[in-house]
Amino acid sequence: MQFIDSHCHLDFDVFADDIDQVLITAEKAGVSSFVLPAISRGYWPRLIEFQKKTSQSHIALGLHPYFIEQHTKDDLLKLEQMLRDCAVVAVGECGIDSHCPQLELQQYFFLKHIELANKYKKPLIVHHRQSHHLILQCFKQVKPLYGGVIHAFSGSLQDAKKYISLGFSLGAGGVLTYQRAKKTRGVFQQIDLNHIVLETDAPDMPLFGKQGQRNEPANLVETAKVLAELRGCELEHIAQSTTHNCHRIFGI
Ligand SMILES: [Zn+2]
Q1: Cis before residue 203, ω within 30 degrees of 0?
Q2: Residue 175: which of 211, 214, 125 has the closest Cα?
Q3: From ligand 1's centre to the CA of 26, what distance in Å?
């Protein structure tokens, strides 16, 4: 059984000392391939290096709204150059976070990411936090043409359906392992499996029972098991469908 972690940050310093072991543990658990999104320009070169060294990894390049105060317009020019010249499977992560400053500037950067994704025929990896209305507004201004993933989706079934109608899939992460995440679990129970991908967001977003620990791609299988339980289907079916979805979305 094979799984793809569609969103993890294996290039972060916290993995530097034991990345080989992390990859072996993931492989043993059946997590054989990874998508690593970027958070700021400073991470782009190391992602490219990581991809060269690790054949089972794929990268996305973009500017995360957490670092909105660092990003410059020159970063967007550089991003365009890199999308043209490098093997990149998506644009991201990008998006809007209403807990971060400069919402208007965040929207400006996000719109630019959508334009670049369209121009270079790439899907988007979208970060959200209490910002579905703002993200959907941007999608109205510039229609994303190649879909992508709404990272760590949480929200209503109505929001989920809007994203799906725009060609997006929803990222199912560790939050599903928390009983109290009723609304999110309900959404992932109901939407078509064709629009779900699995992700850990490692080293962040620990699973239930593993709070305070570094998250790792191997833990993806726990989330997959919860998803299978919620949907009353075999784990194998979850593995096949979500892997197939990643192939379709990212062309990997
Ligand atoms: Zn992330």
Answers
A1: yes
A2: 211
A3: 18
Whole-model pTM?
A: 0.97
Helices (H) and strands (E) in the chain, counts: 9, 8
Q: Distances from the Cα of 19 to the Cαs of 50, 138, 180, 243, in angstroms?
A: 10, 37, 32, 23
Distance from residue 157's CA to the centre of ligand 1 (Å): 22
Question: What is the distance between the alpha carbons of residues 11 and 249, in angstroms, rounded to a whole number?
Answer: 22
- Residue 201 Cα, ligand 1 centroid: separation in angstroms? 5
Ligand 1: centre distance to CA 7 (Å): 6
Write out pLDDT tens, residues 23-38: 999 999 999 999 999 9
Q: Which amino acid is at 204?
A: D
Q: Which CATH architecture has domain 3-250?
A: Alpha-Beta Barrel (3.20)
Distance from C-alpha of 238 to C-alpha of 189, rounded to nearest angstrom: 12
Q: How far is the CA of 132 from the centre of ligand 1 (A)?
A: 17
Task: Give the residue extent of every domain in the chain.
Answer: 3-250
User: How far does the centroid of ligand 1 lie from the alpha carbon of residue 126, in Å?
Assistant: 9
The Cβ of residue 209 has, within 10 Å, a number of other Cβ atoms equal to: 9
Q: In what order do the strands lie in the sheet with 31-36?
A: 3-5, 31-36, 57-61, 90-97, 124-129, 148-150, 168-172, 196-198
160-170: pLDDT as tens digits: 999 999 999 99
Of 144, 167, 170, the residue nearest 155 (C-alpha): 170
